[in-house]
Task: inverse folding
């Protein structure tokens, strides 16, 4: 399925004329692909940093308090999550809609979206939920978070194998 949209091509400043019609495939533009990859890697890095600092490091003072890096890792993780949600929203306008309508890579795409939604909901539960649910929600959040990168990789690999020549 190839759709055609008006997408301006690179033109020299001295050329005049209307933009040419170029085919729009399922593959998102480079900036969107890089944004998805960068935000998922940032989430993975900051989440892994938090896990390491939380479970392996303690404050240098030795009084049992959390390490100072723990709060910074969590702040950076939250910022990366906001970026990821914004990027995912930008993907929903074209890539997700066209892919769903074309019935392409529904399983891997839906799994990735489901994981992202579960991460967002579990993050809200960690922040606003009762303390009694914090431990199991935390484990659920980091297990799904660690699975996000392999899900993205799987979606990309399947899409490349099924791409029309």
Result:
């Amino acid at each position: 399925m190839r759709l055609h949209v008006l997408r301006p091509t690179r033109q020299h400043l001295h050329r005049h004329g209307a933009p040419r019609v170029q085919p729009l495939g399922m593959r998102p533009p480079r900036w969107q692909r890089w944004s998805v990859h960068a935000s998922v890697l940032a989430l993975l890095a900051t989440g892994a940093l938090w896990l390491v600092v939380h479970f392996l490091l303690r404050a240098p003072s030795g009084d049992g308090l959390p390490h100072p890096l723990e709060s910074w890792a969590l702040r950076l993780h939250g910022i990366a999550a906001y970026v990821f949600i914004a990027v995912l929203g930008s993907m929903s306008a074209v890539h997700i809609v066209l892919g769903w309508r074309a019935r392409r890579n529904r399983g891997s795409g839906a799994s990735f979206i489901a994981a992202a939604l579960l991460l967002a909901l579990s993050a809200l539960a960690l922040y606003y939920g009762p303390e009694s649910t914090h431990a199991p929600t935390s484990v659920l959040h980091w297990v799904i978070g660690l699975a996000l990168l392999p899900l993205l990789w799987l979606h990309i690999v399947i899409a490349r194998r099924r791409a029309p020549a």
